[in-house]
Specification:
heterodimer; A: about 350 residues; alpha+beta; 4-stranded mixed β-sheet; 10 helices; about 25% helix; globular; B: about 400 residues; 4-stranded antiparallel β-sheet; 16 helices; 16 strands
């Protein structure tokens, strides 16, 4: 038994204790950085000190045994210092340039490729999927693995017109910034949820359930003498929010769930303002273990973008220059009624001028 | 354990290929019954095209309402070792910097009391410990606090604030994102651990307008570093970029500038800083030659969110410029005023961005006590349905 009293609300450890000496010394005094080769950054301080960061991709889902391997590498090459990025990459922080090649080799041998910097595709930000989530329309890790196996050359090289950020979310909750990515893959439901009337009154609060629907499709109803709900099918757009508040409204459907693809979002302010991703493929089948239709579609989008965008043009900037009609022509993707918004403020997405390329 | 290994032919496919494999990560613990059952259930999902997790129940550590996501298998008879498979969110150190020693301690705790499977990190920014049972939550929590770590947020609370690497490793950091993130996190431990809001409230600290933590897309309050004065220029370095042939200054810099505030005569780059909107493009292209100005602070934006419930929103300008100096009293006052107003009038599961859409930004500002300024809008209203107030005529009288 531990004798120490139970601690609460201590908050996270102070970050300073984890910073390597070179960072403590040059904190806030960095002068510039360069990206000499894929996956390697060098930050130069006003003092002249140089910090080398070596970035390696991870599958996000990591075994503690792998984290220990990273810890060992950090001990061997970086005085025990490392960090992770917002895109699940691991970064080793070196002061000795001559050790970079050996570290990269070790990471490569362990199966963690070095790259993801500059005009590249960094690791795909993604969600839990079937590994851990109740509302997933599809798996996340498996689709991302399948995609990155194909896009791998773009992780270890820097030959795209600009950086290309890909994100994946397995349902409309969109854990992660899927809605503002160059390419976003989103798991979708396409059918009205099935209601478990027998269990609904026991499992769910009716007012919360009714209020959860963005379109007001859920109405109170009496079914077999019990309080339950009725769904106005023509108002349902399968967002699954009702399922989130009430497990008896089952949205997951093995036959009709699938994936959609969106492009042209960004979060950075560079050149153009941040913007949402836009729908380009409304539905692709849920096809484990390799999701070939989705992988092909994303690969095709990357290729068309890479072949046509100008230097420094992100996906959104390229599409805005050429216009959406030409985007659909160049990609060969069919344009359907599903591409036209019909939710709040949909009118703002219509083309409201005669300025068209013919 | 003598239980036989589960067959996973579909998942085995995902061990192939050059990208690191999550299946290989799982199989590194193939000798544990928990991971065997996890692999088994996941294989079932791959066969059936259907997830097999149930909704979270209310589980947690004593005195906290957040930080643990309850998770249960819906096939507990077949996969008994993951019948309970809860997630713990552990508040990451700001900027995700670690020592090998700290990571090993977390690994040891998690291997002893959980599945040994993690996410480094989750979308929230937390360290995610994936899969343990209810009875292990308190022992894990006790050991985590022993080594100086605490749980993060979940549910309708302040979520774990996150920050980019900031001045620790970036010359563009316009304020100390790590210090601000740590300070806010420590100040609002109660709001982080005990959900009392209408819904989640996220704070994200980005050091410059490149926004490496995607705050504009995801945070209810985005703190995006920026500057007010002139871009710092090393004219000789500009010429070096031009001479090196890697940058075509006219085409790649001047013509990509959103306000066309730069001109290049082949020798000198001239910037009309009064027209600069601090987009970062020229600085991103020539980091050796150009740097953010010296009069630094941040722009505070409010109200970003993903689609659920009322549609996705980007955050919008709330405070055009403020210096970021500890103890950040003005910003904390503002944050608390927002929480009071939204806490009282927000509907259940209504994010602050949606609340502002419902009540109107003008009314929201009035209640918070912030003056409206034109930086907050893309353009003034175009519709004439104006809710004029009594004070309109009182002022004229």
């Amino acid at each position: 038994m531990s004798a120490s009293p139970r601690k609460t609300d201590i908050g996270p450890p102070h970050y300073e204790q984890f910073l390597p000496p070179i960072i403590k010394k040059n904190y806030g005094k960095w002068l510039y950085h360069e990206n000499p080769r894929p996956g390697v950054l060098v930050h130069v301080a006003e003092s002249g000190d140089k910090l080398y960061s070596v970035r390696a991709g991870t599958p996000r889902l990591l075994n503690v045994k792998s984290i220990r391997l990273f810890a060992d590498l950090a001990d061997k090459y970086c005085g025990g210092h490392l960090r992770f990025t917002s895109r699940n990459n691991v970064e080793f922080l070196l002061t000795d340039e001559s050790k970079i090649d050996a570290l990269i080799q070790e990471l490569h041998d362990l199966g963690y490729p070095v790259g993801g910097t500059g005009n590249a595709i960094s690791a795909i930000v993604h969600t839990q999927g079937w590994v851990h989530c109740h509302s997933a329309a599809t798996d996340a890790s498996g689709v991302v693995k399948s995609l990155m196996d194909e896009l791998y050359p773009h992780f270890v090289n820097m030959n795209l017109p600009a950086k290309l950020r890909i994100a994946f979310a397995c349902c409309l909750n969109m854990c992660g910034a899927v809605h503002c990515s160059d390419i976003a893959i989103l798991g979708v439901h396409t059918r009205v949820p099935e209601i478990d009337h027998a269990n609904l009154p026991k499992m769910c609060e009716l007012p919360t359930l009714i209020a959860s629907c963005p379109t007001g499709a859920i109405r109170p109803a009496t079914v077999d003498g019990q309080q339950s709900i009725h769904i106005e099918e023509h108002l349902c757009m399968y967002c699954g929010n009702c399922f989130t508040v009430c497990p008896a409204v089952k949205i997951n459907n093995a036959k009709t769930d699938g994936l959609s693809i969106w492009v042209g979002g960004k979060v950075s302010n560079a050149r153009t303002e941040p913007k949402f991703s836009k729908l380009v493929i409304p539905f692709l089948p849920n096809n484990p273990p390799r999701w070939p239709e989705t992988v092909e579609a994303v690969k095709h989008l990357v290729e068309v973008y890479a072949a046509n965008a100008r230097k420094y043009e992100r996906m959104s900037e390229w599409v805005e220059r050429i216009g959406w009609p030409r985007f659909f022509k160049l990609t060969g993707l069919p344009f359907t009624k599903y591409h036209i918004d019909d939710f709040t403020h949909a009118g703002e997405t219509y083309k409201r001028s005669a300025q068209l390329k013919h | 354990m003598s239980e036989k290994k589960r067959e996973t032919p579909l998942l085995d496919e995902l061990e192939k290929g050059p990208w690191p494999s999550f299946v290989k990560e799982l199989k590194k613990s193939a000798d544990t019954p928990v991971v065997q059952d996890l692999l088994g259930q996941l294989e079932r999902s791959y066969e059936e095209h259907l997830g097999h997790w149930k909704h979270g129940g209310i589980v947690g550590v004593m005195g906290y309402g957040g930080g643990v996501i309850g998770r249960y298998s819906d096939l507990p008879e077949e996969f008994p070792h993951i019948a309970h498979f809860h997630t713990m969110r552990v508040n990451q150190p700001a900027g995700w910097f670690y020592t090998s020693d700290a990571l090993r301690k977390i690994c040891d705790i998690w291997e002893a009391h959980g599945s040994g499977i993690t996410n480094m990190h989750g979308s929230t920014g937390d360290i995610i410990l994936l899969g343990t049972t209810t009875d292990q939550l308190e022992p894990i929590f006790g050991k985590l606090t022993e080594i100086g770590f605490d749980l993060g947020g979940s549910g309708s609370d302040m979520r774990t604030p996150s920050a980019c690497c900031g001045p620790a490793r970036c010359e563009w950091a316009c304020y100390d994102t790590l210090a601000a993130c740590y300070d806010f996190t420590q100040t609002y431990q109660d709001e982080l651990h005990r959900p009392a809001f209408p819904y989640k409230y996220k704070l994200k600290f980005a050091g410059c307008p490149n926004d490496c933590v995607a705050s504009v897309a995801r945070a209810d309050m985005s703190f995006i570093g920026t500057w007010k004065d002139d871009i710092q220029m090393d004219a000789e370095q500009v010429r070096q970029y031009a001479a090196s042939g890697t940058v075509d200054i006219q085409k790649d810099v001047c013509e990509r500038c959103p306000t066309r505030c730069m001109s290049w005569d082949g020798t000198n780059l001239t910037i009309d800083n009064s027209e600069c909107v601090k987009c970062m493009h020229c600085i991103n292209v020539m980091p050796k030659a150009l740097r953010p100005g010296k009069e630094r602070g941040c722009t505070v934006l409010i109200g970003a969110k993903a689609p659920i419930v009322g549609g996705a929103l980007l955050s919008s300008v709330f405070v055009p410029f403020i210096e970021m100096e500890p103890p950040y009293s003005d910003l904390k006052e503002l944050t608390e005023a927002i929480w009071d107003l939204w806490g009282e009038h927000g509907k259940n599961r209504e994010r602050v961005g949606e609340f502002i859409q419902r009540v109107g930004l003008g009314n929201f500002l009035e209640q918070i006590g912030l003056d409206p300024v034109p930086e907050m809008i893309a353009y003034p209203r175009t519709n004439p349905y104006i809710f004029f107030g009594e004070e309109l005529h009182e002022e004229q009288a």
